[in-house]
Automatic annotation (TrEMBL):
Entry keyword annotation includes Metal-binding: yes
Pfam families for this protein: DUF34_NIF3
Similarity comment: family membership: Belongs to the GTP cyclohydrolase I type 2/NIF3 family.
Domain of life: Bacteria
Keywords per UniProt: Metal-binding
UniProt: a divalent metal cation 2 binding residues: H64
Keyword Disulfide bond in annotation: no
Residue numbers binding a divalent metal cation 1: H65, D103, H327, E331
Description of how the protein assembles with itself and partners: Homohexamer.
Lineage: Bacteria, Pseudomonadati, Bacteroidota, Sphingobacteriia, Sphingobacteriales
Single Gene Ontology MF annotation: metal ion binding
One GO cellular component term: cytoplasm
Name this protein carries in UniProt: GTP cyclohydrolase 1 type 2 homolog
Length: 365
């Protein structure tokens, strides 16, 4: 198995097109053509994690946070970022990061938090728009089933909890083959009228090439009439944060104790309690303060995230509880998530969790 096979699968789970503009997910160091020996999974990629990979015989580290966010102009080892890159190259270890693209999928980082809290009816808190397109193609009536099946097989026609979705309109098309044409229907120089069906399907933008190749291969025409439309419909499975419900409501203090236990927390910073049960819970791994408005609109009783500043706690305005549990603490179970994702596809691969504690924040009590 080559590193590129692992990368291909990870990017099917969390496509790079889903990452935020500031991010640097993907293969950061290494040759994708190398054979995989062992894979080490971590939240962060530090020098100690690279040392752990060396000791364990791993030549691929899959981390959540990328070691490099912006361009490096020199490699002198003057800081930990440069030292990690130098050490990885020296020991032929590939570094791969799956960061905000994993944050932005249902089943990703925030979903892992929701799973730890046993939330049901999970949904994306802020679905992303601009990730979907619509394909319209005109097909001779006799070939409709084949073309439609090819589109579905390539990933078109999925909407929420449904797949094989399409809209089909009967009509007819006209065309006249010119000199040099090799028409599947009709004769050169003569106008042809053909009973056709207009097929319309929605698809994720990153699948466009695959869908077009399948459509063109299954279509009988030499020149296929089709057009593509960008749509602003939100993608219900892609976006920031997760909203869900507790199986049974809890009193506020009871829920905070439950949260502390389930997320292995030393401390929770939170706004004042409001004297009402906790039933609906919004979560976001890492710095999720930008989602507070979405949490309020979703009817959440509590919003659990990290990296809140002093004045930002006032924004709760008595509408819900803000609970800051810490950046590392909110994402600590991402390692287990990545382990499960990789092992699900590559059952026989040697995939290991790092034994290195990468949290840079310590608590004194």
């Amino acid at each position: 198995m080559k590193i590129k096979e692992v990368i291909q699968y990870l990017e099917e789970v969390a496509p790079l097109t889903y990452q935020e503009s500031y991010d640097n997910s993907g293969l950061i160091v290494g040759d994708a053509q190398e054979e995989v020996q062992k894979i080490l999974v971590s939240l962060d990629c530090t020098e100690a994690v690279v040392d752990d990979a060396i000791a364990k015989g791993c030549n691929l580290i899959v981390s959540h946070h990328p070691i490099v966010f912006s361009g490096l102009k020199k490699f002198t080892g003057k800081n930990y970022v440069e030292r990690v890159v130098i050490k990885a190259i020296k020991h032929n270890i590939a570094l791969y990061a799956i960061h905000t693209n994993l944050d932005n999928v249902l089943g990703g980082v925030s979903s892992k938090m929701a799973e730890r809290l046993d939330l049901v009816d999970q949904a994306i808190l802020r679905p992303k728009a601009g990730l979907l397109k619509k394909l319209v193609v005109y097909v001779p009536r006799a070939n409709v089933e084949d073309v439609r099946a090819a589109l579905f097989e390539a990933g078109a026609g999925a909407i929420g909890d449904y797949d094989e979705c399409s809209y089909n309109t009967a009509g007819y098309g006209t065309f006249r083959p010119l000199e040099g044409a090799d028409p599947a229907i009709g004769k050169v120089g003569e106008q042809e009228r053909v009973e056709e069906t207009k097929i319309e399907v929605i698809y994720p933008a990153q699948l466009e090439r695959k869908i077009l190749v399948s459509m063109l291969a299954s279509h009988p025409y030499e020149e296929v009439a089709y057009h593509i439309v960008a749509i602003e419909n939100p993608h219900t499975y892609v976006g920031s944060g997760v909203i869900g419900n507790l199986i049974e409501p809890m009193e506020e203090r009871e829920f905070l104790r439950y949260l502390k236990n389930r997320m292995n927390l030393q401390v929770i910073r939170h706004t004042e309690t409001l004297g009402k049960p906790i039933s609906r819970v919004a979560v976001c791994g890492g710095a999720g303060g930008f989602l507070l408005g979405d949490a309020k609109r979703s009817g959440a009783d509590i919003f659990i995230t990290a990296d809140y500043k002093y004045h930002e706690f006032f924004d709760a305005e008595g509408q819900l509880i803000i609970a800051d549990i810490g950046h590392f603490e909110s994402e600590q179970f991402t390692q287990e998530l990545l382990l499960d994702i990789i092992q699900k596809k590559f059952a026989h691969a040697a995939v290991l969790l790092t034994e290195v504690e990468t949290n840079p924040i310590h608590y004194f009590s």
